[in-house]
Amino acid sequence: MRRFTWFNATALTFGFAFLYLPMLILITYSFNESRLVTVWAGFSTKWYGVLLHDKAFLSAAWITLKVAVMSSTFAAILGTMAAYALVRGGRFRGRTLFSGMIYAPLVMPDVITGLSLLLLFIAIGMDRGVTTIVLAHTTFSMCFVSVVVSSRLATFDQSLEEAALDLGCTPFDAFRSVTLPIIAPAVISGWLLAFTLSLDDLVISSFTTGPSSTTLPIKIYSAVRLGVSPEINALSSIMILIVTVGVIAASLVSKRSIALQKADEQKALQQ
Amino acid sequence: MRRKLLIAIPYFWLLVLFLVPFLIVLKISLSDTAIARPPYTPTLDLSLGWAGVKDFFSQLDMENFTFLTEDALYWKAYLSSLEIALVATLATLIVGFPIAYGMAKAPSEWRPTLMMLIILPFWTSFLIRIYAWIGILSNEGYLNQILLWSGIIDEPLKIINTTMAVYIGIVYTYLPFMILPIYATLEKLDESLLEAAEDLGCSRLSAFWLVTLPLAKPGIIAGCFLVFIPAIGEFVIPSLLGGSQTLMIGKVLWEEFFSNRDWPVASAVAVILLLILVIPIILFQRNEQKNREEG
Amino acid sequence: MNDNNGNTDFAPWEDPAEKPLIEFRNVTKRFGDFTAIDDLSINIYDKEFYALLGPSGCGKTTLMRMLAGFETPTEGQILLDGQDMAAVPPNKRPTNMMFQSYALFPHLSVAENIAFGLKRSDMPKSEIAGRVDEMLRLTRLEQFGKRKPHQISGGQRQRVALARSLAKAPKLLLLDEPLGALDKKLRQDTQFELMDIQEKTGTTFVIVTHDQEEAMTVASRIAVMDAGRIIQVATPDRLYENPNSVYVADFIGEINLIEGKAEPLGDKLTEIHWAEGEAPIIGTAPADLAKGTACHFAIRPEKVAISSERPETHANAVQGQVHDIAYLGNISTYHVKLKNGQIIKAQAANNRRLSRRNFTWEDPVWLSWTDTAGVILTQ
Description:
Oligomer: heterotrimer
CATH superfamily of the largest domain in chain C: P-loop containing nucleotide triphosphate hydrolases
Radius of gyration of chain C: 25 Å
CATH architecture of chain B: Orthogonal Bundle
Shape of chain C: globular
Strand order of the largest sheet of chain B: 1-2
CATH class of chain B: Mainly Alpha
Number of helices of chain C: 8
Radius of gyration of chain B: 25 Å
Number of strands of chain C: 20
Mean pLDDT of chain C: 87
CATH class of the largest domain in chain C: Alpha Beta
């Protein structure tokens, strides 16, 4: 018996208005005819056209996407390995340092991570560009992946792996044929998290980037420092739209798979 | 063998790309500025053998740290970062708690949707969400337009490029981090505890103070740390919304590095920032551990 | 009326001059389309230990929550001491509730839990500590006052919940499945403890339970509920021996039910024709029934005698074959299959430790009982 009062409804209404109104305004004004973003001058999609012909933006978007796909894939692999080492690795020398290095980047200010990585790349004389950004992004996002995956690993019944070993699997076989399918949803959400973190990152990219590898956030940041512009509004709207569709689709897929599983269980019970 | 490899690969990766960079920062913070490439001395010259190492260490000193304490800019920046983070955390709590509370009280069939609505902004670009506020808060922005049009004010409010705008930005971007842990504790709260309190003579308001709030405490503390810790080192929000007036250490570090090109001082600023962060991080860890033991 | 009740000292419900402490007057409670309580009227008297018994979903918990003030009746009135309770919120009612989950505040110690209600009453601060000690003594929790709820056992938590709800000396204590979370042995001990405490404090107890044994043990009267209605209110022994319906007979204890048609013989004696080729059962009906009325003959297993020869003394006897034997230690229950296929249970006490078992599977046996051993039910 939970009492949902007027107070609760008001709090939710204002809360969600606060969260979503700024983005709605942004999207609305991306369809503004005028270059003066604060004055409404009629509906137009021309800024989307301008954006699609802006070569600098397109190449920045392409670089960002490349970096995000590569770094999130490496992060998913390394993060899963790290999670497995933490949860199932038992005791090994330097475990405390290892878990410290997994959790520290989660709370590290971006400016420090970026600065320290840049100083490393300079110290070893590495040319800065897409490679250094990918290395940097992989490093901090693998920690997020490993937190997501290790929480799934910790709740999963270890006797399943033992059963696989008992039935003749090698440890590697057991991992591939039993553990991996079960933790796959966590690895996928870890990958998605790493992907968005990489897409979103401004500070670490700014430190580790080279002259020919400007990412989209860097581009947006330098444009935005000069004030609000309708092209950025249009670009933001596209990015918000993609994320919204992605998140809703992902939640519908997971809802559907849960519903299907329930239906199957129901069927099995009736037989 | 394979197990060893499984541990060794991520271990090695983090050593090289996380720990070693730190040691480099620490080392450079003890070095001197130089007009050279790289712009600091000493550099370790291993060709000289043991003497080179000795020479290298003898040149390191605390000069940059002394400099930080002498120049008021730096310690003011640290203090003002702490103050801004603290005030913004409280503001986020005040805004976030009623939302988390409303979510926990909402009919259970709404809750997954409400959760998704809270998480969705987290997936959209941080930079874009900050950017959206520039258009709202600027002098001829939407907020001022509405207030002027409705006759509430005669002159536009100056919000952008003030600390106020930084507060708004932090509350806005970190709100989900506050709401989710509080919601998690409130959602677990057994409704019969509130009925028991009422049955024993509490009004609804006093039942809230005596039962709901104490039991939501772990979530409130976790949420506050999750906002406070990243807010201290925040760079994007003060640089886009705070203008030149707002002094925050993340911005100072950025400028020290990119504008002044003073790498040793920037490194020293980073080392001190880390030392400051260690305290709330340890407190946060303790809180989490206590909750895990009790839960 | 009081023929079966040996203990006549406490029976306020038999005294027309006695005013009930609680009165439900035609109370109905609906949740949307669902009717949880349907036009229900009952009286509960001071110092009673009143049990609401029924399967889950029968409305007993709703009834109790209306007494505590967490639900309000859709129609009808609830009176406490003659005063309508409709407008009184839970925190202003002279009732306290012991929750099924105990609802102990996890952030407060045992003593603070017990003091919680007192601090919100008009009791002077100086007396609270004394009252808390008294409650700790009453529930034998003296050593545990400083512990948190998660540091004590399930049985101790149950006693803390009881102490907390009794601390304010309520006129009425409501207990919602108070022993549901305890194991069987502990439950039995606690039942007697509850009765003891009820007697010592003189508080009126209303207990909700789905466990008929528990209700029979603790209650002065039991209200058997089904689908939002009261089926029968009576003392445990009357409920057991004189159920008013097949529902109550079947719900309380074990019973054999034989379906048939009535044929009155006069003086309440009634013949029941129940199967082709079998002699009718002779029983006693509560009132004269019309010839041909459909009815059930209900008889408890312990009132059915089992023998290898046809006994001469009993009014009723049927033949059958032993189908199953359940040995329970103190007694054995024989499942006897009659010619028409119906199974009748008969119980015999095992009063000798070493004896050859009288009957075994497939043995032909006779079942017999007197004409007053069973009841004839028409509902």
